[in-house]
Amino acid sequence: MKKDLKIGIMGGTFNPIHHGHLVAAGEALHQFHLDKVIFIPSGDPPHKDFHEEKIAEHRYLMTVIATSSNKNFFVSRIEIDRKGKSYTIDTIKELKKIYGQSSNLYFITGADAILEILSWKKTQEIIQLCSFIAATRPGYDISRIQELKERLFKKTKNNIEKIFVMEVPALAISSTDIRKRVKGKKPIDYLVPEGVSNYILKHGLYK
Ligand code: NAP
């Protein structure tokens, strides 16, 4: 009998993708015994005023470059190609259609983003359909995730064990810092894969 796939969904803006994201995906693959991790750069994030979709194609291509050497990493453009705001519920439903309703989906993203999950579109439905892996930077106060679980329990009466915390020391690297460094003409070698750093230079991004 065919086994149900366990798939990691790496959600994020990836502006740009860096080694912290790659280490987080690799760690999730290992810790949660996933079959693969699909990186999904968001198209037009619902919670952001500025329009990241303007450089969406660059974010997507840098993600492809960064993940190309790992046989378990894949990149999807479903959010980049979808018109309108990138709601996670729409993505999860689409993936369930592709991989089967019994596939086990793990949505991996930054803990700060997961803390806002109660304000996401159709929270109740999302937590029925997938689990969450909150990737934290070193020193992150994980009691905030525990508080979230309690609020979630009050609201939904179940599923609080569907949120996992995963500490990733390499997440000391951040996209915001990388953009600032490029603007300030500081090196970004070793923070991002070489191909990504070359891509940023070639296309004059973040100047
Ligand atoms: P964000 O505000 O850009 O990021 C929040 C924090 O999490 C940042 O510190 C970020 O670090 C980190 N982070 C982001 N993605 C990560 C990843 N995959 N692994 C580890 N750390 C990560 O959040 P965002 O990227 O826009 O949103 C995260 C995901 O949640 C996206 O897929 C987005 O579509 C989804 N989301 C959905 C809704 C909704 O459906 N209503 C609302 C909000 C967010 P870096 O800056 O270094 O990446």
Summarize the structure in words.
With 207 residues, the protein is of the alpha/beta class. It has one domain: 3-Layer(aba) Sandwich (Rossmann fold), CATH 3.40.50.620. It has helices at 19-31, 56-67, 78-81, 88-99, 111-114, 123-129, 143-156, 175-183, 194-203, and strands at 6-12, 36-41, 73-75, 104-110, 130-136, 163-167. Helix 2 (56-67) runs antiparallel to helix 9. The longest helix is centred in the last third of the chain and has 14 residues, at 143-156. The chain starts with 5 loop residues before the first strand and ends with a helix. The structure holds NADP nicotinamide-adenine-dinucleotide phosphate (NAP).
As a percent range, the share of strand residues is: 15-25%
CATH superfamily: HUPs
Which stretches are poorly predicted, pLDDT < 50 over at least 5 residues? none
The succession of helices and strands, N to C, reads: EHEHEHHEHHEHEHH
Rg to the nearest angstrom?
17 Å
In this structure, how is the largest beta sheet organized? 6 strands, parallel
Spatial strand order of the main sheet = 3-2-1-4-5-6
List the bound ligands.
NADP nicotinamide-adenine-dinucleotide phosphate
